[in-house]
Amino acid sequence: MTRKRATLTEVAKRAGVSIATVSNVFSGRKPVNDELKKRVEKAAKELSFQIDRAASQLKSGKARVVGVLVPDLDDTFFTSLISRIEVMALKDSYDVIVASSRDDKQLEESRLQTLLGWRPSGIIAVPCSDIVPAVLAREVAHIPTVLVDRVITQSAVADTVTIDNFEAGEIAGRYLVEMGHKDIVLAASSLDIAPIRERVRGAVSIIHKMSGREPTAIELGSNAERGAEIFAHWLERHPLPSAVFALTNVTTLAALTALARQRVDIPEQVSIIGFDDYTWMSARKTALTAIRQPVDEIARLAWERLQIRIGGDVSEPHPSILNTSLKVRESTRRLADPSRGEGLKPAEEQPGETIDNAAKERPNRIH
Amino acid sequence: MTRKRATLTEVAKRAGVSIATVSNVFSGRKPVNDELKKRVEKAAKELSFQIDRAASQLKSGKARVVGVLVPDLDDTFFTSLISRIEVMALKDSYDVIVASSRDDKQLEESRLQTLLGWRPSGIIAVPCSDIVPAVLAREVAHIPTVLVDRVITQSAVADTVTIDNFEAGEIAGRYLVEMGHKDIVLAASSLDIAPIRERVRGAVSIIHKMSGREPTAIELGSNAERGAEIFAHWLERHPLPSAVFALTNVTTLAALTALARQRVDIPEQVSIIGFDDYTWMSARKTALTAIRQPVDEIARLAWERLQIRIGGDVSEPHPSILNTSLKVRESTRRLADPSRGEGLKPAEEQPGETIDNAAKERPNRIH
DNA sequence: TCCTCGCTGTTAAACGTTTTACAGTTAAAC
DNA sequence: GTTTAACTGTAAAACGTTTAACAGCGAGGA
Question: What segments bear the compositional bias annotation Basic and acidic residues (chains A, B) (predicted)?
């Protein structure tokens, strides 16, 4: 199986040049005579030679890898983030090492530690809790780091890219109240997660301000199936709310599953706003109205920040905060007479219409 | 930013031992006196030292990385594969480098080439077409390789893990015919992909055998949105079929989206069988009946084969073929009188019931 | 003609580990 | 009391690159 791979030396010998020349041909650091270059390339091809990254990295100290850590590789939000990061990484010829912390603080530390062993050019991490991993906090001065999504912007020790979670809560809350909803349930994953708390705060505050009511927040965890059970259980012992606002894509799934199991009609009996924007949300008779996170933008910005840091920038940690938008589709119904709890039309807006807050001031926005 | 990281030598100096001892403490290859070990560990912690993988790998030749190549990091099937592989990799303390070929044969080659540059312990690849990437074909003798999913088992140059695609087609086809469906559409991604052709073959053959009818196969590509448009367009110029069998998770989404846009009721007007089994499929009023691929099993087997090869096994390429099952839920309706094309009950089986072919002979099955 | 310069190519010294061969020390065996 | 064996620790040689430093050699300027 393992006939040893060709080395610089062998290629050099075969092409009748020094190893430095071969190295130059591959790295392009110094010009090489055309005729020699041809010979080297021929020899390399014949031996199917390829630079050994370990050796290259050891000597040069440069890595051309980034480590990406996420809390869950089964969560579409994180994988779509990874997908986009991989695209930009390729463009700048970096490779990507992925690791999942599985929402486990301890595993997070150890995964980060091994990631660091690669001496990567940088780390993009979605922490699994508010508190920045100790490894990262310690190492942040030595390695470019960007924290994404689950972060408290204020206290950050590194660059961050997040959405305006409070505003996301507000947008959904406002829309729901405007549609006449009063009895609203907030389907959170876990209130231990700062961004989730922010979304709740945003929704609660605007709902209270506009309607004087207090929405109910329930925690469904970060597993859809279990979340569905919890929610179903909750539904059994409470009167049907008129609307549900799911705060993550997983709780969206959980709520939808529970509602479907109990044969609750959407939006006739219960309106719902989901979180994140995925194809399956439109692949239904009553397409889902949802808060859309700008995943592309998040990934782009994270990569941009990382490159800036790799480039040697040592300025203060830079927080980027992006805005979400509401994709209005068909899962929220207008209640004609709020007090009666009954209405006519499913939704006023055109399906597909977007209520975008893009025009509003974007604090800390790059450019 | 980049104060240099501590090295073995520095730790050794601080602990007052030789670098060999420090190395032994970390690798555990040779026993080290407890008192010394303590000293070394203390020194290491103080310097927040961590073995440099590049150096380690260069010297030892062992990598503890595997490269994983998939055609699309936005496709849940592939990411769930990666998720499971990452779990097993961690268990055996390997790291995972991911790369996407974006269904581009040329990119596939180059991604594979760079992957190889890491001198990984092995490669797990989902090729983007039938023909095995040239790099891999050339290198397969030197590096443990497992090909997954999109593979022609017979001609494989390396270990393969696939599902029985023909059988998957048969299962769905048989079920549909048994439910009284005759006018069936096969929503394929691309007939250039061997497994898809097999699924089509399986469905066509059994449908023909049982009902004498020929289903129509249409190609929707591997992008859900575009697929939806193509299918919508097709629907406009053809009479409604009584059932759709979607052959991939993306075409499932595409078909569902198109059907929803045209306000077609499922299963009243059209029955549908999807592919793959994801949470969103159950998170709907009429939960989706679908062919389930055993993703866990696929990942487990792929990893197992890889480990066997890494262990030095040089026997003939080993094909593993897994069986799929039909998750019967609510999206297929029984047609009472096939000729009339109208029926009564949505489905005979209990929702959630599984028609499993597990008991059948499993060719080439491990164990 | 001599000197300098630009252009290419080479030599050789690292980079931070792993690992072999060896040395020293103590315990067990005879 | 000597020999052996069992343990631990160390010195030093790689691993395959990158990258100074340097060398050879025409050409152009003085």
Answer: 327-348, 358-367
CATH topology of domain B65-163+296-321: Rossmann fold (3.40.50)
Q: Which residues pair with A271 in a beta bridge?
A: A243
Neighbour-count burial of A213, counting CB atoms closer than 10 A to its CB (0-12 exposed, 13-18 middle, 19+ buried): middle
Both tokens of residue B37? 């070990």
Which chain C nucleotides are covered by protein, judged by CB under 7 A? 7-12, 14-21
* Cβ-contact B163, B293 below 8 angstroms: yes
Neighbours of A357 (CB within 10 A): 17
Residue type, A132: V
- Residues carrying CATH 1.10.260.40, chain B: 8-51
List the single residue in A3, A48, A98 with the smallest CB-CB distance to B98.
Answer: A98
Adjacency order of strands within the sheet including B289-292: B216-219, B184-188, B243-246, B271-275, B289-292, B325-327, B354-356
Q: Does A65-163+296-322 carry CATH code 3.40.50.2300? A: yes
| Record: contact A80-B96, CB cut-off 8 A | no
CATH class of the region A165-293+324-356: alpha beta
Residues of chain A in contact with residue B51, where contact means CB-CB under 8 angstroms, are: 117
Which of A196, A200, A198, A236 minimizes the C-alpha distance to A216?
A200
Q: Which long-range contacts (CB under 8 A, 24 or more apart) does A278-283 make?
A: A278/A76, A278/A249, A278/B280, A279/B224, A279/B225, A279/B253, A279/B257, A280/B253, A280/B256, A280/B278, A280/B280, A281/A252, A281/A329, A282/A329, A282/B257, A282/B260, A283/B224, A283/B228, A283/B253, A283/B256, A283/B257, A283/B260
Any A CB within 8 A of B216 CB: no
Q: What CATH number is given for A8-51 in this structure?
A: 1.10.260.40
User: Which segments of chain B belong to CATH 3.40.50.2300?
Assistant: 65-163+296-321, 165-294+324-356
Interface confidence, given as ipTM, is 0.89
Distance in angstroms (rounded) separating the CA atoms of residues A35 and A362:
56
Closest by Cβ to A96, choosing from B3, B53, B98: B98
Give the H/E segment covering residue B209. helix B194-211
- What are the DSSP calls for B44-92, one per residue? HHHTT----HHHHHHHH----EEEEEES-TT-HHHHHHHHHHHHHHHHT
Specify which residue's alpha carbon is closest to the C1' of nucleotide C13: A59
Residue A212: helix, strand or coil by DSSP?
Answer: coil
Beta bridge partners, A97, equal: A67, B97
Q: Rounded distance, CA B20 to CA A232, Å?
A: 60
Residue pair B249/B293 in contact by the 8 Å Cβ criterion: no
Q: Which CATH superfamily is domain B165-294+324-356 in?
A: Response regulator (3.40.50.2300)
Question: For every residue of A90-145, which 3-state class applies, written as one string?
Answer: HHCCCEEEEEECCCCHHHHHHHHHHHHHCCCCEEEECCCCCCCCHHHHHHCCCCCE
Q: Each residue's pLDDT tens digit in chain A (367 positions)?
A: 555 689 999 999 999 999 999 999 999 888 888 989 999 999 999 999 999 999 999 999 989 999 999 999 999 999 999 999 999 999 999 999 999 999 999 999 999 999 999 999 999 999 998 889 999 998 888 899 999 998 887 777 999 999 999 999 999 999 999 999 999 999 999 999 999 999 999 999 999 999 999 999 999 999 999 999 999 999 999 999 999 999 999 999 999 999 999 999 999 999 999 999 999 999 999 999 999 999 999 999 999 999 999 999 999 999 999 999 999 999 999 997 544 444 344 444 444 445 444 333 333 333 3
Taking the C-alpha atoms of residue A311 and residue B315, their distance in angstroms, rounded to an integer, is 48
